[in-house]
Structure formats: structure tokens, C-alpha cells
Amino acid sequence: MIIFIVPKNSGLKKYKDKILESFSGKVVEVRGEDVPLIVFSLIEQGKNAVGITGEDLFREFLLENRNTGIEIIKIIPWEDELCLFGKPTLCLLGNKNCNLESLPKRVRVCINRKYSRMAKKYLSRLEDGGFEFEKIYLSGATEEAFANGISNLVIDIVYSGKSALQYGLSVYDRIFSSDMVMIGGKDDIV
């Protein structure tokens, strides 16, 4: 029996339904960022497990967990006209009246905790260019941190762009655009 690990997120219903329509087995719902670890753990226990999650969350998992044997089995293109960039995109955001070049070289950046490794990798390239970052990690409310003067920059997923606009932010750079992915062990076939 295959155990299928899927994200609880109701906004992903059409993607889950599309994949699960031809699936028979046990379905377990968890937070999207937990899908890769749970799939890996079940496979380690000798169980046949696959999962679907955002490609961004899977890539974040791989940055800390190398050589797991977990890989992308299938890419499910994210297509949503409500997305500013057509799909969820991890972005560097800052004051809409400035740009990255106009900021001081030492700045505070608020990072959504679930993207801490991708953000660190991205920021290291900017540090090579002379920037120095004080990193603040939150589990949400990253735009609010900017709006309240806690940070100069934000790294988080941009979906529609409405909250960025609401808090006076604009996209300075796109870091990673995400599709949905089906993940599992190298020998798993669904």
C-alpha cells in the first residue's frame, strides 16, 4: 500500500484532487513544509510513501538534508492567473520608493523561517557584493515587520502581491518560482 502525504492547505485542493483522482491508498494531510521529511521518514521505515508539496519547500528541505534518496517524481505546473508571476515566487522585497542599490550596505532583513536556507544561500551572494545583513526569522508577519520598522527588507513568497502592496513593498528580486512536485524514493512509481 502506498501512503500519500499531502499538504493541508485548502488553496491546493485542485492540485491534490488532480493527483489523487487516480490514486488508491492511504492519504495523510500535514503542513506543506513537513511533507518531505515525513515522506523520507516513512521510506526509511520501509514504507512506500510519496508526497506532493511546493517545489520551494522541497528545495529548502534538500539544502539541509542531502543524500536522502528523495527526488522529484513529477512536476505539476502551477498555473494560477491570480499569481503575480503565474506561480508562487520567493522574492526579496523592499520599500516601494527605493531599490536595493539605494539601501545602506548594512540592513535588517526579515525572512520567513520556512525559507531560511534558501534565503541564506541567496543573501550570501549579496554579501559578496558588500552587503551586511542582520537576519530576523519569523513564522509569518514578514511584511508587518517591514511596515513596523523592524526590517528594511523581506524575503517571503509572493502570491498575488496584494499584501506586499498593502505594506508599501515592491519586489526587488525573484529568488525562486515554485511549481507543485510529487516526491518520493528513486524506486517509487505512482
What this model shows, in words?
This protein is an alpha/beta fold. It folds into 2 domains: 2-78 and 179-185, D-Maltodextrin-Binding Protein, domain 2; 89-177, Periplasmic binding protein-like II (D-Maltodextrin-Binding Protein, domain 2). The protein contains 6 helices and 10 strands. The protein has helices spanning 13-20, 35-44, 55-64, 116-128, 142-147, 162-166; strands spanning 2-7, 26-30, 48-54, 70-76, 89-95, 106-112, 132-138, 153-158, 169-177, 180-185. It has a 5-stranded mixed beta sheet. α4 links the parallel β6 (106-112) and β7. The radius of gyration is 18 Å and the shape is elongated. 33% of the residues are buried. The model has no long low-confidence stretch (mean pLDDT 90).
